[in-house]
Specification:
There is one protein chain. The protein is an alpha+beta fold and 319 residues long. Helix content is 40%, strand content 27%. The strands form 4 sheets. Strands 10-11-7-13-12 form a 5-stranded mixed sheet. Helix 3 crosses helix 4 (66-81), helix 4 packs across helix 7 (178-207) and helix 5 crosses helix 6.
């Protein structure tokens, strides 16, 4: 009898162990931070509706600074050793170049305007990583000795919320190269850092990924969010809230603002995967609401606009 109990306990423990070992891991991408790019002269300036905006020039950083590739490869290797799948930033940049060529030939049907998108939003969209690891590092020199001070931030790619951080200064060395110094400095922090990443991802897997949904209307549309539909004369704003309650994970979302002309829903939790195991993003999720509004009994033409990975806007009244 005791042998049977021991055997049963062993099977249970093995099952639990296998369950944890097969748990889904978040996909990651390591990028040099805006601060590092600015300090080292890898920035672009562009006009955003009259405002001058500086953004990182990742392509030039990779082409001109071999240290960037070495340092990011070092961090990639440390994460891979801990079972975290990684997206290669250099490959993502090459895909971006191909997409940029297409975007340069694309314009709005109505206004002829070009596509406006920040480089980091474009990079996130191409990489489709769950978490962006933003890395800043500085080489300190004291006489012949060198050390590394680093700051590693894990950012949710959809919300830009910081969900993990590690910072510190490594031991000084006479001869070690920068990537080796960085590896030594980061090593003691890595397990806590990856633990925070996994905890955040486990929460997303259980409770859904967080996005923002905004509803707006074109000026020339004669309806609004107070327009009533159906036998119950239910207002359109309430109908949209009911759809979110039915389709968000565990019905979780917050109505931050609601007027006749606009609505803002934050902390909308969407599933990571559908019933077929395919990944779901904000665009695919909100597309469902867009289709419902286009069909009977509402018959409201609308336009779905994305900003980054986690912000979706439906504009009511036309394309």
């Amino acid at each position: 009898m005791k042998k049977n109990i021991v055997a049963l306990v062993g099977i249970v423990m093995l099952t639990i162990s296998l369950g944890f070992s097969q748990a889904k891991k978040p996909t990651l991408m390591v990028v040099p931070s805006d601060v590092w790019c600015n300090q080292n002269g890898y920035m672009l300036t562009f006009d955003n509706q009259g405002t001058q905006v500086k953004v990182p020039d990742y392509k030039r950083a990779f082409q001109e600074n071999a240290e960037v590739l070495q340092v990011i490869s070092q961090i990639n290797g440390m994460m891979a050793e801990r079972g975290f799948p990684l997206k290669n930033m250099e490959s993502a940049i090459k895909t971006l170049e191909s997409n940029a060529a297409e975007d340069n030939m694309r314009s709005s049907k109505d206004t002829g305007s070009g596509v406006s998108e920040s480089p980091i939003d474009a990079l996130k969209k191409v990489a489709k990583a769950d978490i962006i690891m933003q890395l800043t590092w500085t080489v300190n020199k004291t006489g012949p000795k060198k050390s590394i001070t680093f700051n590693l931030q894990g950012l949710d790619a959809y919300t830009d919320k910081q969900i993990a951080t590690a910072t510190g200064t490594g031991a000084p060395s006479f001869s070690a190269e920068t990537p080796v110094l960085l590896s030594e400095a980061v090593l003691s922090h890595m397990d806590n850092f990856t633990g925070s990443l996994q905890t955040h991802f486990d929460d997303m897997f259980e409770n859904g990924r967080e996005i923002i949904v905004r509803i707006q209307k074109w000026d020339d549309w004669d309806g609004d969010l107070e327009t009533e539909f159906g036998d119950d004369d239910e207002e359109l704003g309430v109908i949209i809230e009911d759809w979110l309650a039915d389709n968000a994970v565990k019905g979780r979302f917050s109505t931050t603002d609601m007027t006749a002309d606009m609505a803002l829903f934050e902390q909308v939790r969407i599933p990571l995967f559908n019933e077929k195991g395919r990944a779901i993003d904000a665009r695919r999720f909100v597309k469902g609401l867009s289709k419902v509004l286009k069909n009977e009994p509402y018959s409201i033409p609308n336009k779905l606009v994305m900003k980054g990975l986690g912000r979706a806007t439906i504009i009511l009244g036309g394309k």
